Amino acid sequence: MTMLKWITKDTNINFMGARKFTFLFSTLLVILSCLSMYFKSFNFGIDFSGGVLMEIKANQPINVEEIRSKLSVLKLDELNLQTIGEAGDELMIRAQAENADEAAQRKAVVDIKQILGNSYEYRRVENVGPQVGDELKTAGIVASVLAMIAIALYIWIRFEWQFAVGALIGLFHDIVITAGLLSYFRFDFSLTTVAAILTLVGYSINDTVVTYDRIRENLKKYRKMPQLDLLNKSINDIFSRTILTGITTLIAVLPLYFWGGDALASFSFTILAGLIIGTYSSIFVCTAFLNLFDLRAVEHKDENNYFGSIG
Amino acid sequence: MYKLSLQRIIMILAVCVIGIFYAVPNFVQNAKTRLPSWWQPVNLGLDLQGGSSLLLEVDLNAALKDRMQSLEDSARAALKDARVRYQGISSGSDGLKVKIEDANARAKAITPLRKMDEGLTVAEKDGSLVVTYDEQALNQIKSKLVEQSIEIVRKRIDEYGTNEPIIQSQGYGRILVQLPGIQNPEEVKILLGKTAKMTFHLVDSSTTPTEAKRGKLKSSSRVIRGSGGEQYVIVRKPAVGGETLTDASVSFQDGAAAVSFKFNNLGAKKFGEVTKNNVGEQLAIVLDDEVISAPTIQTAITGGSGVITGNYSSESAQELALLLRSGALPAPLNILEERTVGAGLGADSIKAGVFASIIGLIGVIVFLLLAYGLFGLFTSITVFLNLFLMLGTLSLIGATLTLPGIAGIILTIGMAVDANVLIFERMREEVKSGRSIKDAIETGFSFAWGTIFDSNLTTLIAAAVLFYFGSGPVRGFAVTLAIGIVTSLFTSVTVTRLIITAWFNRFKPKALPI
After folding, report:
1. Both B303 and B226 in a single domain?
2. What are phi and psi of B182, to 5 degrees?
């Protein structure tokens, strides 16, 4: 009846055997990501950079060059025109007014509308002042850092500090590499992207917690097993779960990436990338990190849940 | 063994039924008009239904400057009453500086200056007295300014007539205005961009603007621009204030649009006195620091009403009447952020989001059936149930669904399955290690619970942080994510347990179908 039996088959893979290779691989990815962020920076949306964003739609394909030359009479910085979708009848206009203050930007919107006239449908008009952009940038960073600290604290309460540090390193690894990919592929980096990154933080930590839970359980169950074998066994024990959950989430999110529309492209990309990297890091970063310590010497907190059970 | 008591079954089913009941309006066409107000579909964010959102900032500095300016006038009067000679007086947004060279006179001036208003402190500095509000008073003044501004913004937008506008204070000195359905917010921006402070001043006929510029100007008068570019000299102190207006409307005088207004009793009395005592003088009508007209008083006007004529079209007269009716803003407003989504894009976003969700849902269910067979079917039931419960909860608490919120729903579909997978995998292991089916089911649930709880709580932490720091669409996402976590815990643990126990009791299976 269950056709995908192979997924739930017991595995006995030597994950930890690859830890030296994956350590190098992860380090390399983190370095490349940092380089990309440093040299290519991000394609910040107007949420963060401030400026004007418009999306227009016409009845026929839009001639980008014609619009560019029409708009060239205006004093606009960083004018960026880009068609959206396959039909070519939609255009995204991004620009910054020359003195970048709110009033100049408001005027820029009015001017652009006046030049383009009524033959277009104005599907989106956004205007974010530089002050708000800076504030949102700060809020985004504070939110990410705070979420990480709060999660690490929780792990620390429920596990031991080595686990909390391991989880935090894993999170850092996931965030940096995902951000690196966003930077390298020039995805729009907006408030929604920050939301996606925080969601991936939740997902990745979810995966790590499941793994750590099992390691703790096995530490009590197999008191004589060598540590490396125990870590391997723990990952293998829950490997079918890792794959099943990973695939279902992937199946749920993939359509969002392909058909969710332009506004969700960077959101779903971040989730997709985070999903894969998060699953990888729970095994090869978070768990491999634990091997640096003698876990048997650590006094383990009671694994029974303080919160009782639901029923 | 887990007991399947009647009470428990009824409670679980009740929660499901209530959730589904509140989710139903989302599948009814034109539910907004056809269903009662307590049974409505989820609110759609502006990014989905189309509309305009403006973030305004109350220019507190400008308002404080105004306030200090009037304090300056009171200071002149107070010092005159106390017979204190002063060498100069100046004001800024942070305070008032009174230069008094004589130390005795300075000491004498402190009390009358402090008594001008509540919360004032007077300090001595380099031969001057510096008058400022203490922090508590200043905060009070500021929060009152914001409060009043919101009030006026609400009145103006109500007068303008839009559907279900949302006007709320956000952060420090900010006002968020959301206007569903408004595609072109220019008119609203013009309405909010004017403080519309109207006052009536007598024109100072003892001098002319040209002479005044050469220095022949009383300290109680000032030069002001007219709307046609001309100059007037007016008495600083208003003869009648704009706050005494009760009504304004468009009227026509000799075929030209004009604005007629009415005073309340106090204003009518004041206006009557001023016009009676100053027949033959000019009375300037000043709007936002600009003279819009300065008619000569022909006779005493005691009826408590008047007409402003000028170069008005019927639109601009309409606009002025609206502004006067809704009252003056205590401070100018700056537009910090503006986002408008067309109805077309909103509808497309909903279509795309719903389509992606359906494809995702079908994919997940097919995969679950393939991987888990019968238990996959059970899980699919809970996934659907979860979807209804999420929608029901969102509708019930009046939350706002945004485009990222739809993404949150899809994400929850994927993540909710995780709890079931954890439980089922645990059962499988327990069977393998030799436990009976009954025991395996039992342990599967109890052992997986700790893990499920931990992993969901961490996601809830992320959602809480997002809610706190996010705004608009992101906040919508955080709300859906948080609700999804709670409802999915219920469906994938409690409901799954109910289903599996019922299945076990009914069929007494010899092996787990996983």
Report:
1. yes
2. -80, 120
Q: Say yes or no: B366 and B412 in one domain.
A: yes
pTM: 0.81
The pLDDT of A32-61, averaged and rounded, is 91
For position B231, which CATH number holds?
Answer: 3.30.1360.200
- Supply the pLDDT for residue B32: 82
Instruction: Please tell me whether residues B305 and B367 are part of one structural domain.
Output: no
Beta-strand relationship, B120-125 and A51-57: unpaired
> In this structure, is residue B353 part of a structural domain?
yes
SS3 B154: helix
Domain match, B463 and B358 both:
yes
Does B71 lie in the same domain as B42?
Answer: no
- How far is it, in rounded angstroms, from Cα B228 to Cα B142? 35
User: Which segments of chain B have a pLDDT < 50?
Assistant: none
Q: Concatenated DSSP letters for B322-346?
A: HHHHH---SS-EEEEEEEEE-HHHH
CA distance B329 to B195: 5
Distance CA B396, CA B407 (A): 20
* Cα A153–chain centre separation: 21
pLDDT at B241: 81
Q: Residue B184 falls within a domain, yes or no?
A: no
Q: How many domains does chain B have?
A: 3
What is the layout of strands, in order, in the sheet containing B174-180? A76-84, A90-97, A51-57, A121-128, B333-341, B51-58, B174-180, B166-169
* pLDDT at B287 (0 to 100): 85
The band of A310, judged by pLDDT with boundaries at 50, 70 and 90, is very low
Report the CATH number at residue B416: 1.20.1640.10
Residue of B nearest to A150 (CA): B461
Q: What is the pLDDT of residue B12?
A: 93
Tell me B360's DSSP state: H
Query: Higher pLDDT residue, B71 or A230?
Result: A230
The domains found in chain A, sorted by start residue, are 25-39+133-297 (1.20.1640.10), 51-128 (3.30.70.3400)
Residue A143 has pLDDT above 90, yes or no: no
3-state secondary structure of B318: helix
Which domain does B288 fall in, by range? 196-310
pLDDT confidence band for A125 (50 / 70 / 90) = very high
Q: Say if residue B86 is in the same domain as residue B127.
A: yes
B509: which chain A residues are within 8 Å (Cβ-Cβ)? none
3-state helix, strand, coil in chain B (%, to 5): 55, 20, 25
**Of the partner residues A123, A251, A264, the one whose CB lies closest to the CB of residue B403:** A264
pLDDT of residue B407: 86
Q: Do the domain assignments include residue B513?
A: no
Residue A311 has pLDDT above 50, yes or no: no
Q: Tell whether B40 and B131 lie within a shared domain.
A: no
Whole-Å CA distances, A256 to A269, A279, B279, B356: 9, 20, 75, 5
Is residue A235 predicted with pLDDT exceeding 50? yes
Residue numbers in A near B357 (CB within 8 A): 255-256
- Which helix (DSSP H) or strand (DSSP E) does residue B134 occupy? none
- Tell if the CB–CB gap between B404 and A8 is shorter than 8 Å: no
Does B462 lie at the interface with A, CB-CB under 8 angstroms? yes
Report the alpha-carbon distance of residue A233 to residue A212 in Å, rounded.
12
Band of residue A215 on the pLDDT scale cut at 50, 70, 90: very high
State the complex-level ipTM. 0.87
Residues of A in contact with B453 (CB under 8 A): 305, 307
Answer yes or no: do B370 and B493 share one domain: yes
